[in-house]
Each structure stands twice: as structure tokens, then as C-alpha cells.
# Entry
Amino acid sequence: MKKYIVLIVAFFLGSSLFSQVTFKVISLPANTPANAQIYIAGSFNNWNPGAAAGLLNQTIDGSPGITLNISGTITCKFTRGDWASVEGDANGNVIGDRQYTVAVFDTVLINILSWEDLGGNTSGGTALSSVSVLSQNFAMPQLNRSRRIWICLPTDYQSATQKEYPVVYMHDGQNLFNEQLSFAGEWGIDESMRDLQLAGDRGAIIIGIDNGGSERLNEMSPWVNPSYGGGLGEGYTDFIRNTLKPYVDANFRTLPDRLNTAIVGSSMGGLISMYAAARYPETFGKAGILSPAFWFSDSLDTWLNGQTFPSQIRSYFVAGTTESSTMISNINEVKNILIQKGINDTNLRVIPKTDGQHSEWFWRREFPDLYKWLFRSENSTTSISSVNQFFVKIQPSPFSEQLEVYFSDFERYNYRINDISGKTVIAEDSIVSTVHRINTSHLKAGVYIIQVYNSSGARFQQKVIKN
# Structure
């Protein structure tokens, strides 16, 4: 009898483990129809493009996902329910079958580049194929709502598989890439980033957050204006820092430290960008502020005077001199407060433009110069490390209970492990060894940055993820 019980338990345990492989779509073509149903078809379900058991459901962050009863090597494709609407390459052409070798508890992250029936112009407007929708309904728990999120990847993201990139978070996502969705014209961010990279820039990941329509003014100011609203800016900023950024860092090859993270916006987006950089300078080391609506609240100056800033924070302000009678004076007032708070004047730049207008065309024109100035010392194609990449090796990633750090010699080393907010969670000095093991069992799941320094002060930095 005991033998049969063991066999029954083993069967159910085996069946449970056998169903733990998850496929998660982290980006969709921008022209994916609203509320489209996505299916997976493959060798495990007789290549049925619309099988009910292959329908992807919405995960907690709003992206489509499915957990399947499979293991081993499989082939598959994604569809919208039939073979006429199967996925294609970046230009909307036929692609070969996907092939994966999967094991228990694996999560496979999927980027769908286009749909054959809709073609490679993924925007439905003017966006390049580098632009896709990260999620149609990305959850914003801080505000109890959801939002469409866009992503624009560097031109070499798919080919340079070991390369990591800075990230720029931008507001009013509808206006960044898509002529048809934009209000009074798009910014052309995808074209600008393509041209910058062709000119030698290392490239950056651009994240666009759609505005909340009627909630836009409420979300983009932490302070209430009696005539126009406001008051939800703290929750909106916390969403970007505590929900969206960790997701992006965990799922894409990012450089997540503050010197490689910028936040950029215009008008009310300029106000909330200044607030985000001032509230979380350990997260957003750079702020691009175009035609800011600093007039919206008298509380900004007082609040800034109460903040503490690292001297390295970098902010770029640009506006038209005739946009309003107080536009440039308000910007200079904020700049002076930042200088009084200890920020070096060389890290603050104000660009008044006599022809500037409160308009998308103006912000489109000014964005490349803003980007280049913000990343002027980080935009090279070389590694951020000032040490030979092979002097240290860190594994595994993702990690669980332990990290192993391998050194090439017995030189003296120090290391710091920081969480996504910049807080040091583990630190150790004066290590003299060729291999050092770090107990990480007490760390929460998430993204971490490990920095290793040798005796001469040279630095090696790597992003690691704990499951």
C-alpha cells in the first residue's frame, strides 16, 4: 500500500512541476489592436493558432502571459488567433519558428516585433520598428489604475547581446513616437535616438508613459492648484520609481544606477520631472526639463529648499523666452535654489530660446541637444567600468542564496551591493582572495547593483537579479 501512495504522490508532484514554464510577452507592436487576444501555437498543441488553452492572460503588471505544461525543447509562434495574424519580423515579414529549451520554473520573456497582417510600420503613425508597446495596461498600484507604456530600444539591442544601456523615462508617451496619437505633432524620439546612435552615441532605452488624459494635471503635480487640480504627483512618481523602473531593469539590459537614469518631460511633465529628480536623486541622476510649468504651484521653491541633493545631479532646462512672462525667471529661480543646495553650477544648464514655443515641434527640436548634454560623459560605447572587464567575474544571475565573485589575483578588493534605490544592503572591505562567496539569502527578490573596487580605486559594476 505504501508503494502505491508514494507513486501517487510522485505523480502529482511531477505533474505540478511539469506545469511551471511561463511565457511572458514584455513588448508588443505599437499597432496591436486594443484588447487583442494573443495566443501561443507550437509543437506542444499541434500548432493550433487559436486554441483556448493557448490564450495568454493578463499578468499582474498588465503584460500577456501563460504558464504551460511543457518541458524540454519546443518550437512555437505567437498569433492573434489565426495564421493570417501571426507574428513577423521588424518589417512585417515571415519569420522562422521560435525554439526554446525550457525547464521547470523557467520564465521566457518574449518581444513580438510585428504582425504579418499589419506590417512592419508598428506605430500606425511614424514610429520606427524599434518602438513597441511594453504593455497596454501596465498596473499603477500607487494610483489604483493602469496605463499604456511604450519602449524604444537602441538600434543594436538585438545584436549587441552583452551590451547594457542607460534608460530615459519620459511622460506624455502618446506624443513621443506616434504622429496619429500625438497632440499637435510627435517628438520623433525614435528617429532622434537612431540618428544619435549612428553618430556614435552608445544608445539608450526610452520608456514612454502615456498621460492620464483628464487626470494629467492631477498626476503631474504633487501640490494642488485651486483652479486646475493636482495632488497625485507623489503617487505617479512613486509608480515610476518603485514599480515601472524595477520592471524595466529586471527585463531589459539596463544600466540601472542613477548616473544612467534620466527623467524627461515638458510643461507639466517638466514640473514632475524636477520633482522626481529632487525627491529621488539617488534614482534619477539626470533631469531634462522643457518649458516647465513651474507656475502651477507656489510650493515648489519652498519644497526644494527643504531637500538634500548630491552634488552630481544634472539638470537641463530649455524654454522659449516668450512662452510666458515668468517662464525664464521661474527656471532661474529654481536653478539658484539648486546651487544654494550644493549642486555644482556646471551640472545645471539653462537654454533660453528666442524662437521657442510651448509646442511639440519645439520640444522635438531641442531633445537631441538635451540628451547629449545630460549624457555627455556616459554616452560612449565603452563600458562604464574603468577596469578590464575580465579582472572580476560575478555569478550567477539570477541568483538566490549566494553570489560568487572571482578575482584574477590576490589584490585587495572592496565591494558594495546596492538595491534599486541606491541603498547599500551588503558591503565588505579588504578582501584578499581569488574567489569570494557572499551570503544573499536575506535579500528580497529584485534588481541589485554590485560594485567592486581594487586598491587603486578602479571600479567594476554589474547588475544582478535575485529571483
User: Anything to note?
Assistant: The first strand starts at residue 21 and ends at 29. Confidence is low (pLDDT under 50) at residues 2-18, 379-390. The chain has nine helices and 26 strands. The radius of gyration is 24 Å.
